[in-house]
Amino acid sequence: LVFTKNTTEAINLGLRGLLKSGDHVITTSMEHNSVIRPIRSLTENGISYTLVKADPKGAIDCREIEKVIQKNTKLIIVTAASNVTGTKMPLDELGKIAKDKGILFMVDGAQGAGNMNLDVEKLNIDIEEFGIENFNNECRKSVRENESAFTDLTHKMGQFIDVKNPYITYDNNY
To answer: Using a CB cutoff of 8 Å and minimum separation of 24, what contacts does 118-124 make?
Structure first.
């Protein structure tokens, strides 16, 4: 469990911390720029990637993911749901493919956190990123109401997280 200031930072930390020269990554055409840009920049460090295209409705065919797996594929990274179309990705099937092939599975949960069940164990997700800003108002209200417990937990972990940081917008509606 790692706390970062936002989802983009978490994605970069995950990608740059995991991938080494010679590794291959699989991603999709439905990804946010916070995924695509760092992957493209990592090609300068010897990382290769395959971009699997979605159908016109934004759906991903898991068979297409399987077809592009290489012996050096280290990571499959997908969004939980598209911020453009709202299409939910088949995380259960993708997680099973990754697990069966011994490939790490990373999910950009920014658009799904608080709206989808993103059970990392059930979905075989190795790394999931999301920010508190991605949760709906009820989830944020719960965090805010339990702020002292949340702060106590982060202190016990040896880290300090200020849940009232500038990356989270609070208003009087919750």
So the answer is: 118/80, 118/91, 122/92, 123/91, 123/92, 123/95, 124/95, 124/96, 124/98, 124/99
Contact 56, 132 (CB under 8 A): no
Of 82-86, 144-148, 160-164, the poorest mean pLDDT is in: 160-164
Section 46-73 average pLDDT = 95
CA distances from 84 to 111, 132, 136 (A): 10, 20, 18
pLDDT the model gives residue 134 = 55
- How do residues 91-150 score in pLDDT, each as one tens digit? 999 999 999 999 999 998 878 776 777 888 899 999 888 766 555 555 545 445 555 544
Q: Residue 64, class by beta-carbon neighbours within 10 Å (0-12 exposed, 13-18 middle, 19+ buried)?
A: middle
CB count within 10 Å of CB 158 equals: 6
Asked whether 12 and 62 are in contact (CB, 8 A), the reply is: no
> For the whole prediction, is pTM greater than 0.85?
no
What CA–CA distance (Å, rounded) separates 18 from 73?
Answer: 12
Looking at per-residue confidence, does 44 or 163 come out higher? 44
Ordered strands of the 127-129 beta sheet: 48-52, 24-28, 73-79, 104-108, 127-129
Tokens of residue 148, six digits: 């002292």
Distance (Å, rounded) from C-alpha 3 to C-alpha 8? 12
